[in-house]
Design brief:
- This protein has a domain of 30 residues.
- Helix content is 43%, strand content 0%.
- The protein has two helices and no strands.
- The protein is globular, with a radius of gyration of 14 Å.
- The relative contact order is 0.18.
């Protein structure tokens, strides 16, 4: 299950507010999202977003 492109765009935009010097590095990703191109499929070899997460709770 991937994240929807608008959510990814929101995260990247928020990140760039804190790190504007990285705009050029993320512009291709933003351009792909704006053009409606996929950004979460592994078959998009010119670039795609992947995520992972681990949550630990000491109570268990």
């Amino acid at each position: 299950m991937g994240f929807p492109a608008p959510h990814i765009q929101d995260v990247v935009t928020s990140y760039l507010r804190q790190h504007p010097e990285e705009q050029a590095l993320l512009q291709l990703l933003l351009d792909r999202i704006a053009a409606g191109r996929g950004v979460t499929r592994r078959t998009d070899f010119d670039g795609h977003v992947t995520t992972s997460e681990a949550v630990s709770d000491p109570r268990f």
